[in-house]
Amino acid sequence: MDAGRNRAPHPEYALMVSSEAPAAPGRLVEETLDFLAYLELERGLSRNTLEAYNSDLHQYGEFLARRGLDPLAVAPGDLAAFVSELAEGHGERPAVAPATLQRKTACLRSFYRHLRREGIIDHDPTAELRAPRTRARLPKVLTRDEVARLLEQPRGSSPAALRDRALLETMYACGLRASEAIALRLPELDLEVGLLRARGKGSKERLVPVGSRAVASLRDYLEEGRPRLVGLRDEIRVFVNLRGGALSRQGLYKIVQRHARTAGLEGRMSPHTLRHTFATHLLAGGCDLRSLQEMLGHADIGTTQIYTHLSTERLRDVYFDAHPRAHVGPA
């Protein structure tokens, strides 16, 4: 326990929390620092998640300060009142979106569980805390014909066309997030074996198979297109911009949107749509949920399960293949 309390938080989080300290009880600032350090160093959560949790706890600190509450002695009713205030809005602050409310509630539960583990409190006031239920919004996916149309758009043998074709094929073949695609480095590609190493949220790594069409597109790009873009630059990233430097998230977004527009899919997709489509098409083809979880890099299989609702094509095929009354035969 003592070792846990000696965690050194990232200095930028210390600055963020201390600069906001007047709005929150002092003990909350201290425990927030340790909590963020625990999430960063032991749980390996992403920078975006850490910043979101820091903001959530600062907002919680403002609530406590207004009511004169001690963060280590709050009652379940106090926490329920905070969640209700978030859901309904307070003063000039509008009600938060349902998904944001779920995250803020999860942050509070995680924070107080951390305090309980560390022996700072002897009971967890969030044990019964729940955010209002929200209806899950199913992600948009493309049909196989739409994917084929999209992948046909980068035409020609120019370096940009070779890069775009390899990028789109790889994102669809491997279910990569945009951040994973732009972070992909040359040593993380093994085209002989047909595998790549993706670095996901919280710097977690996973191996993902690369299909034959993506391998072929990557070979063409790496042999013919990328050398003409990079020139004499010492660039380790696989996907580069037209100046030979590492491709940015904004650059990737523009590439995807440009080809979506020419494929007649404008407004239908974003880079993440290819990841959703990858998952849905794998399930429709018979992939099991655990394998899909590994390939997507989901920590919780519950996150992966949303794709089971999208994979009706597989269910329909199984039904028509197996049900004796599914087909009308001759009289």
Task: Give your account of this protein's structure.
This protein is mostly helical and 331 residues long. The protein has 2 domains: 2-117; 144-319, Orthogonal Bundle (hpI Integrase, Chain A). It is 55% helix and 4% strand. It is built from 15 helices and 3 strands. It has helices spanning 2-5, 11-19, 26-41, 47-67, 76-88, 98-117, 144-151, 159-174, 178-183, 212-230, 249-262, 271-284, 289-296, 301-304, 312-322; strands at residues 189-190, 195-199, 205-209. A 3-stranded antiparallel sheet has the order 1-2-3. Strand 2 and strand 3 form a beta hairpin. It is globular and about 65 Å long.
Describe the structure concisely:
The chain has 331 residues and is mainly alpha-helical. The chain contains 15 helices and 3 strands.
List the helices and strands and how they pair.
Elements: H1 2-5, H2 11-19, H3 26-41, H4 47-67, H5 76-88, H6 98-117, H7 144-151, H8 159-174, H9 178-183, E1 189-190, E2 195-199, E3 205-209, H10 212-230, H11 249-262, H12 271-284, H13 289-296, H14 301-304, H15 312-322
Antiparallel strand pairs: 1-2, 2-3
Helix pairs in contact: 2-3, 3-4, 8-10, 8-12
The number of E-state strands comes to 3
Helix-strand makeup class: mainly alpha
How are strands sequenced across the largest beta sheet? 1-2-3
Q: What CATH architecture of the largest domain do you see?
A: Orthogonal Bundle
Overall outline: globular
Helix content: 55-70%
Number of helices: 15
Low-confidence stretches: 14-24
The radius of gyration computed from the alpha-carbon positions, rounded to a whole number of angstroms, is 24 Å
